[in-house]
Amino acid sequence: MHSLDPLATSTMISDTYRRYLRSLLPLREPQLAEALAHAIDTSPLLTKGPLLEATPAYAPGATLNELVAEGVLDPAFRQLTGPALPADRPLYRHQEQALRKAVAGRNLVVATGTGSGKTESFLLPVLNALAAEHARGTLGPGVRALLLYPMNALANDQMKRLRRLLADTPHLTFGRYTGDTKDDPQRAADTFEQLNPGEPRLPNELLSRREMRATPPHILLTNYAMLEYLLLRPQDMDLFEGDQAGSWRFVVVDEAHVYDGARGAELAMLLRRLKDRVGQGRQIQAIATSATVGAEENPAAATAFAQALFDVPFRWDASDPAAQDLVTATRVATPDGPHWGPLPTTEYLRLATTADPEPEIVSAARMHGLPAGTTAATALAAEAGTAALRRALADGPRPVHEIARDVFPGDPVGPAAVTALIQLASQVTDTDGAPVLSARYHLFARATEGAFTCLDPAGPHLDLARHETCARCVRPSFELGACRRCGAVHLHGTFTGQGAQARLAHRKSPDSPHTWLLLDGDGSDTGADEDDETLGDSAKGGLKERRLCTRCAAVHPAATASCTAPDCGGTELRRVHQLDTHEGTPAACLACGARGHGMIRLFEAGNEASAAVLSTALYQALPPATDGPAAALPGQGRKLLFFSDSRQAAAYFAPYLEDSYTRIQHRRLITQAVRQGCPDPDEPLHIDDLVAHTIRAADRAGVFRRNDSRQAKQREVALWVMQEVLSLDDRQSLEGLGLLRIDIDREPYWQPPAALTSLGLTDDEAWLLLQEILRTLRNQGALTMPEDVDAGDEAFAPRKGPIWVRSQGSEAKRRVISWLPSAASASNRRVDYLVRILDALGHQGERRAAALDVLNRLWTDLTTGHLADWLRSENQPGIGVVRRLDHAWLRLRPVTAADSGPLYACDRCRRITAVSVRGVCPTLRCTGRLEEFKPSPETDEHLRRLYLTFDPVPLRAQEHTAQWTGEKAAEIQGEFVRGQVNALSCSTTFELGVDVGELQAVVLRNMPPSTANYVQRAGRAGRRADSAALVLTYAQRRPHDLARFAEPERMIAGEVRAPIVPVDNVRIDRRHAHSIALAAFFRAMKDERGRIWRKAGEFFLPDDTTGEIAAHTVRDWLTPVPGGVMASLRRVLPEQVQQEIGVDSGDWVAELDRLLRAAQQILDQDVSSYSERRDQAAAARKYRQAEMYEKVIRNLTQRELLGVLANRNVLPKYGFPVDTVELRIPQEGGAVSGHLELTRDLSAAVHEYAPGAEIVAGGHLWASAGVYRLPDRELVSRHYAVCAACSRYREAPGPVDPVCAACGTQSAAAQRRYVEPVYGFVAARGPQRRPGQTPPRRSWYGDVHMSTDTADLQEGVTTFASGHTTPWSAGTRGEMVVVSEGPAGAGYQICDWCGWGRPHAQAAPLRGGHPHLLKDTQCTGPLRVVSLAHRYQTDFLQIHLDPLTALTATAARLRSGLYALLEGAAAHLEISRDDIDGTVHTGTDGMPSLLLFDTTPGGAGNAVSMGKRLEPVVCAALARVESCECGPESSCYACLRNFRNERFHELLTRYEAMALLNALTGDST
């Protein structure tokens, strides 16, 4: 495989992105089109980079032999050395330091970079201890070292390394105990052989659980979730108790930085429980490793984190190296010189392409005086150009062009020479295999905010940043949109004010209605095409002519001559037409009649579309494998790894990328086929011929599998071709882009119809005109299909057929369009085109009547005359005789400069066409003129260039998120490693050091929360030592992303903070208390009764013999609490938590019993429901269906017990350590449903899983149908109200007092009620569809409130530089309520009986009940309108405003300042913005304050950190809002806006934010 050229690839990607953006809005107004193109081409806001980051080699230390001789290592260690562990190869210096400290018995944090050998830092001390114990003759079975990994994949990687190291030491045993480990030894051996073909099994590797229980291995590898299970399950107690359990010595936590916040609290409690089991009376040595634990920035914080995590001492004394339990890396310094050379830049370029450059480098160095025996690595390191490059990179990542100016000043090929030198330095390695210089390139692209322009008569000033007022002429700035088909310019916003005060303003709030103004439309007609109306699903809209003042944005009636708005009086009015719609994306253009989803679009690229464009360009640039097995794989070995912070974003992007890529691939294959199959334009292709040629092109590209039949290929490709023939989207189709010409064949004796020649047209013009008229039928889908193609296939949406045409009389229900308009008021494209042709011919008289006459005569010729073969007649039942264009008469040929006639482009709508009759544009109602168009590579539109140059190599994309079961996720990972999957879209699952094979590039679909996350994700690329890697990051339209885009260097190499471990999280600690108790219960039941429960049905359903329900016996066993359990609880739980959950009183036992009984009822109800369906199906003799329900029952009852307990919040669930609920998907929902586990934090679930919401999982859409209810359990419900005057929140079990206690305002609004859906949600049954081109709409209408002021408080005061003081309060038990009020804030209708639900907004009346949520019947239960909510306690920070600010601050100022503070906190504290949130809280005194809180139930310590560091947080917030490119009177997604605060967008401005922040600091300026 060749290497990627990062510089050329970056340039290509940047050019592609700008070319794509230029294609988004085909503005038909020349000045605006030119201004937009100029802004895109010159804007610095769109891409940055590539930036080059270099990592010098790590400094060498002592060899293993030297450490043995010194006495650091035991002499027996020499037995472990060999090819896999050379005794004479120097360790890295940090490895040596770690080894010395660990051998001395110290607890240790190893904090070194990726690829630094952290594994050896902990593995060598473990192996040394084992070797020494073996030498003493005391090494028997039993765990000595536990290696804990956050992912199975990391443990698997470590096993490969241990096999190499311990191949010749059979006395040292090791084993991996994870969810993938088989119980049976033979099955485990078979699995090993399957996964490791040809690799012999080592006698000292224990493969099965049974083997490890019998003789526990010396080194045990597992993950934290499995360690939880090991501590719980009685069958695994021999690992921790008994004769072989007294030997535990080491606990190693790899990738320790992931244990931050709630996850850190989970692991800290787990390790305390482990220590309670195995560490009584002995010392357990703790070692943590991480590349991003903040050790360089704050070593004391890093060791404090480790101490909190392990609950053992870690020391850091900056003045005493002997008291430092922390090891960081030491890098090799740049050689001081003397340096030889430098080589000419042309020589770097040449050497980089040489297969083996090392001899030439040595030869050149010898010529410059270096001694004989000098290695290529030493020579290149001493070369002057290499040294200069190292110096240029010494201070961190820099743009390549900037580096080139320093290293090769004035050299035009400097950037290319830098890239070549990096390639050389990566290829040339020293004797240990380390490259002279490793490097990584970083390229950034960002989302567009929109296109905003004034309408200055002297010329528009267009900007890509949001401004409400033009920065150059102080006129109002409007947001631009355009029709995708005709380019008609639309202005988007919302009306403010009434009557003469009405103005078009930027739309900020989701509650504000959308207003669309068609700029300079003539308004003579709505422009609707009757064909579109017949086949479309959107209602006909209307236009109202208005006048828009370009000086003040006031909108007036049509007859207005001058602006009547106060203080304006301007006469610069533009004619506009207001659309009769309030849709966010109008589905119809009333200028040209085009219809379809998002026909009018804004200049918003969209996260998925932009990422797909960038990723496709990168994937195409990846070099293929030219030989070996990889060359035969889909994509020829190309692989890309994608990261998203959101699992939903990752899940949606996989099918989106594959679908969008495949559409381009199909069109490219058709382009190749038509060009290769039709070398002579006079012999065009029949559709069947094109299908055959396309199959051959697809075979050459490797699209089909070898075992695909010819018939299967025929069906598939025929569908592609017919999609293209219909040409539904002129802006994207091959025909619409001037690459394919589709004509109707004609007999040699053909004569032009008299109806056309009588108009004065030539024979050729008549032929072209007739073709264009018949094309309107083809574009509407009134076309016959080849035998293998179904006209009703989803691929033809929205023109699913069959569709017919008849002379007159359309019929929407039967999909019949009318050749002639059905009414005098109607029109269609045929009439419109002929009218404009007649106008161009100078026709005298009423042109519409003449056009109708021509069409009528043509219909006669086409149905009865010599043209009748083209329109095939069919007699359809209930319709009569109708016709379709016969596809067999169509002929296709390529459009090439050499062999085809000229192409034409409209000077108004810019449509490209191969047909010009008197220069009339065929676009509906377009007044533009066709001019000859000569495409060139420089002017080619984005898609046109793709269809001409794209390599149609296959791409298979898959999701890899926590929504998959572990088994399915491992299967997908394996397919990606092997190259069977080309694009893996993951959330954070592969962020750590997982082996994903050789990757030359990765794509980050958003800016990660912190530098630590970025470093980890970027580190997945560049696993090939001989190649520099490329990291491509897309900054989404949100403040964090766009702020980091402004300073990409900070993202790459910014400050990394130490993780936080809040061990007193009550919600988390309670579950660990349950785990202690259940572990003891399970052990006792095994010892006393011989009972072990493995499956959910065994534990929760009545025993077949005794009828006893095991889950109900737990409380009895815990009454009273056994002494051993009580002692463990007191040793493990923090004292404050013990008091909170009632350890002494036993209250915690009642809560455990409640949760177990709720879980039992859920399973019992599910089994009863499916049993009823099974019995009904059997009674109706639907045996296959009955068998399916029986399988569902088995699936429910055979689920792993511990997994069910974790999902029901009884036990810790480490993947999502908060209050989780499940979206229960129907098990009969297809093969994929059995591989999915959809769980979510309840705070997010009340939005994302709410009735009517859709999510993507496993490549399918799943819609929530309601709230899961238990038959004898009522959901917790409370009344609540928010004061309209002071915004104070209040709630109560019953009706809330209508008088606000804070301000005394009497509320006139109806009170609302919420329920807590603590048992989860249920997805709708029925077939699941694949996600479309638009992501599922998320509904986040609601807010977060503090429901109590009684939390324990810590008071503080921050003194700013001005001397001004701001008081604050911080607490750890703030009672928060997340309220989801549904679309438009109208709530949800939820059935009191079955839980079925839907959004209340615009809900249609129901007759005869509604579908039962769990059964195949109707339910007549009452529907109640409620909100959904989640109550939880968390850490909070309350910032108190001075009295003057509190009394005078508007809602806009308070909200703007609040969201600025949150962005500043996220940036300064290096935490994810999703981990914190805020609200404006009104206290009992009626005074507002700013409330910032952790979104993690129980808290994660972030809020308290914000209080302690309030001054730098405020400074970071000010820096964010002061530097944003949007206008101060507004806000944008780069400063204050995000999805969750959408309802407040109309309030948010940078000016108000700065005013509040300055009030906090006391800055009066």
Helix/strand layout:
Blueprint: H1 6-22, H2 30-42, E1 47-55, H3 64-70, H4 93-103, E2 108-111, H5 118-136, E3 145-149, H6 152-165, E4 174-176, H7 185-195, E5 205-206, H8 209-214, E6 219-223, H9 224-232, E7 250-253, H10 262-278, E8 285-289, H11 299-310, E9 326-328, H12 345-352, H13 358-367, H14 376-381, H15 384-392, E10 398-399, H16 400-407, H17 414-427, E11 438-446, E12 452-453, E13 462-463, E14 478-483, E15 489-496, E16 503-505, E17 515-519, H18 530-535, E18 543-549, E19 555-557, E20 573-579, E21 600-602, H19 607-621, E22 640-643, H20 647-677, H21 687-701, H22 710-726, E23 740-744, H23 754-757, H24 763-780, E24 804-808, E25 816-820, H25 829-840, H26 847-864, E26 871-876, E27 880-885, E28 890-894, E29 903-906, E30 912-913, E31 930-933, H27 942-949, E32 957-960, H28 966-977, E33 983-986, E34 1001-1004, H29 1011-1018, E35 1029-1035, H30 1039-1046, H31 1048-1053, H32 1066-1089, H33 1096-1100, H34 1114-1117, H35 1123-1132, H36 1135-1141, H37 1147-1179, H38 1183-1197, H39 1201-1207, E36 1220-1224, E37 1239-1241, H40 1242-1248, E38 1254-1257, E39 1260-1267, E40 1277-1282, ...
Parallel strand pairs: 2-8, 2-9, 3-6, 3-7, 4-5, 4-6, 7-8, 11-35, 22-33, 22-34, 24-25, 32-33, 34-35, 36-43, 42-51
Antiparallel strand pairs: 1-10, 1-11, 12-13, 12-14, 14-15, 14-21, 15-16, 15-17, 17-20, 18-19, 18-20, 23-28, 26-27, 29-30, 29-31, 36-37, 38-39, 39-43, 40-41, 40-42, 44-46, 45-46, 46-51, 47-48, 47-51, 49-50, 51-53, 52-53
